[in-house]
Amino acid sequence: MAQLWGGRFTKATDQLVYDFNASINFDKRLFHQDIEGSIAHVVMLAKQGILTVEEKDAIVKGLTGIREDVDSERLKISNEYEDIHSFVEANLIQRIGDAGKKLHTGRSRNDQVALDMRLYTRQQVLLTDELLKELLEVILYTMEQNVETYMPGFTHLQKAQPITLAHHYGAYFEMFKRDRQRLFDIFRRMNYCPLGAGALAGTTYPLDRNYTASLLGFEGPTLNSIDSVADRDYLIEFLAALSTIMMHLSRFSEEIIIWNSNEYQFVEIDDAYSTGSSIMPQKKNPDIAELVRGKTGRVYGALMSLLTTMKGLPLAYNKDMQEDKEMAFDAMDTVKDCLVLFTGMLRTMKFRKDRMERSAMNGFTNATDAADYLVGKGVPFRDAHGIIGRLVLYCIEKDTSIDALSLEELQAISDKFGPDIYDAVFLKTCVEKRLTVGAPGPEAMKKVIEKHREYLAQESITLPEEEKK
C-alpha cells in the first residue's frame, strides 16, 4: 500500500479501510492535471530559491517522463497507490531519488487536489462550451433554411398560433446561448489558483503564488487559504449549468419524440440515430432522443449529491469532499456525449414540411388573427374574443375551419366580417404580419438570425496566452 503518510502511525491500515479510503480508481483521471500542477509548483520553488535549478530540472524531467510513459502505456496507473498524487510522487522518487522527495515542499494534498480538480473542471467547461457552440451552429443553419416553413405553435400541447420552424428552433437557440453565458460566468469566477494554500493555513516557505497562478493560466491566486481547500462552489455551479443544459436537451428531445410519432410525422430521424424493434418490423424508434431525456435525471443526481455532501461540512477540508469526483466526472461525460449525439441527430434530421404546414392550417391557429381582424373593424377585443369563440364552436360542429366558411356563414355570426377576412386569416399572412422583435415574421426572424450569426462569430472562452503556450 503506497501512501504519502504513516510516520504518526504504529500499525498498518486495515485493508478494507485502505480500500474504502483510496481514490485512485477515479482520481487517476486527474493525472495530467497533477503533472501540470506539480511542474508549475517546482518551477516556482526554484524561482524562489527553495529548490536548486538542478533539483528543479531533475524533477521536471522525471515528471515529464512519467507523463510520457503513462500516455504511451509503458507505465500503468496501479491500484497499489492510494491516489493519483501518491502514484506520481512515488514513481518520481523511484526514478530520480532524493530530489523527488522535495516535490511536495510547500504543498499539501489539500491544495494539490483542489488545484487538480479546478484545472480539470476548467478544461471541461471549455470542452462543453465548444460542443454547445457546435449545437448552436446546427440550430442556426436550420433556422436560416426555414424562415418560411410554417408549423403550429403550441401551448398546453394544443395548437395555438401559426409560427415557423425557424421561430421554434430560435427558442432553443436562446436556451443554449444562455447555457454558454453561464459557462462563461463560471469560468470567470473559478479561474483562480488554490495552490500554495497548504492544508488550510498557507506555508512558511516564501512561495510566489502569483507566479504559480500565471504559469497555470489563472487570473491570480485565491485569497483565503481556508476557502481555497474547502471550496467546491465552482463545481456545484458547473453541475447546475450541466443540469440546465440537460433540461434544455430533454425538452427538445421530448418535442422531437412527439414530432416523430405517427400522429404528427413532422420529422424523420436519420437511420443512424434510430433503432428498430425486436418484434415489430415496422418500428423506427427515436432512441437517442429518449436516452438524452432519460440521462437528464442522472446529471441532476450528481448536482444533488454534491450539494448534499457539502451542506454540513465545517471548515476546512474534510474527507467527505473526496465524494466530489465520481458523480461529477460521470455528469461531465454524460453531457458531452449527449451534446455530440443530439447535435448529430439534429444535423441529419429531415422535416416533413407539408405535414407541418397542413397541421398549422388545422386546429384554429388563426383564431387570434380573426379576433384581431374584428378589432381592426372597431370591435372591442373582449367582444371580438367572444365572437371568434362562437365561430370556432360552429366550425367544430360542422367539422370545418374558419377560412373554409362562406362569407354568409361568417356574417351570420358577425356583420363585421367582409371579403378581406380570408386574407387576414390566411396562414402566410398570419405569420408574416408578426414583425415585432422576437416574432415569427420572416423579416423579424432574419434580423434575429443576423444577430445570432454575429454572436457565433465571436471568440469562445479561452485561456490566457501564458497557458496556451
Give an account of the 3D structure.
This protein is mainly alpha-helical. It has three domains: 15-105, Fumarase/aspartase (N-terminal domain) (Fumarase C, Chain B, domain 1), CATH 1.10.275; 110-146 and 156-203 and 219-352, Fumarase/aspartase (Central domain) (Fumarase C, Chain A, domain 2, Up-down Bundle); 359-457, Fumarase/aspartase (C-terminal domain) (Ribonucleotide Reductase Protein R1, domain 1), CATH 1.10.40. Helices cover 61% and strands 4% of the residues. The protein has 20 helices and four strands. It has helices spanning 15-21, 24-27, 31-47, 53-71, 84-96, 109-145, 165-190, 209-215, 225-230, 233-260, 287-310, 326-348, 353-361, 367-376, 381-398, 407-413, 421-424, 427-432, 442-457, 465-468, and strands at residues 150-155, 158-164, 267-268, 350-351. It has a two-stranded antiparallel ribbon with strand order 1-2. A two-stranded antiparallel sheet has the order 3-4.
